[in-house]
Amino acid sequence: MDKLDNLIEVVKKSHKGGGDSKIKMQHNLHKMTARERLQSILEQGSFIEIEYF
């Protein structure tokens, strides 16, 4: 695996937050994750996340 592939994997994992179980727990409590909250208030394409971890 080269460095770019490694970075892509790290970014994918960071978007999962605490993992699928934590996301499901938030949804069961009728809450959104932090990324979901940001997506709901920002215009599409107006925000670029520059630090993933």
From TrEMBL:
InterPro entries associated with the record: ClpP/crotonase-like_dom_sf
SUPFAM superfamilies assigned: ClpP/crotonase (SSF52096)
Protein name, UniProt field: CoA carboxyltransferase N-terminal domain-containing protein
